[in-house]
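> call design_seq(struct)
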């Protein structure tokens, strides 16, 4: 089985077990707080190695003071995995996985972490539940 097909199968299994909604290249996670967070899946290759970049949107960089963006970079060092990044005009929480090596446990933990942590920062910086 090709890495992408294997990953898709693992992702479908994780989403079914957790009750998450998967739609094309994103997973919607319903959080215990009643809020939700969407984790986007972007497939790509680097030096011939298939990867998937997962990211959760926190909010618009146009609505954040510049010193807050600098603070986000300082927070990166304390994150257990993943990091803050800017994608277009959005502050996101991102993590990248090797398609061939990603298993159920790792993918479950990664999506859960990005959704929960992304929502924490979205709520604390913007208040709204929009991503």
């Amino acid at each position: 089985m090709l890495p992408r097909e294997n990953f898709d199968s693992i992702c479908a299994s994780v989403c079914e077990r957790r009750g998450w909604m998967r739609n094309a290249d994103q997973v919607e996670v319903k959080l215990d707080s009643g809020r939700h967070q969407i984790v986007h899946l972007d497939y790509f290759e680097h030096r011939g190695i298939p990867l998937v970049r997962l990211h959760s949107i926190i909010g618009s960089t146009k609505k954040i003071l510049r010193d807050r963006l600098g603070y986000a970079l300082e927070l990166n060092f304390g994150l257990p995995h993943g990091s803050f990044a800017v994608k277009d005009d959005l502050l996101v929480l991102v993590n990248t996985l090797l398609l061939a090596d990603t298993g159920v446990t790792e993918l479950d933990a990664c999506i859960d972490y990005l959704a929960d942590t992304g929502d924490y920062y979205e709520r604390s910086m913007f208040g709204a539940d929009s991503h």
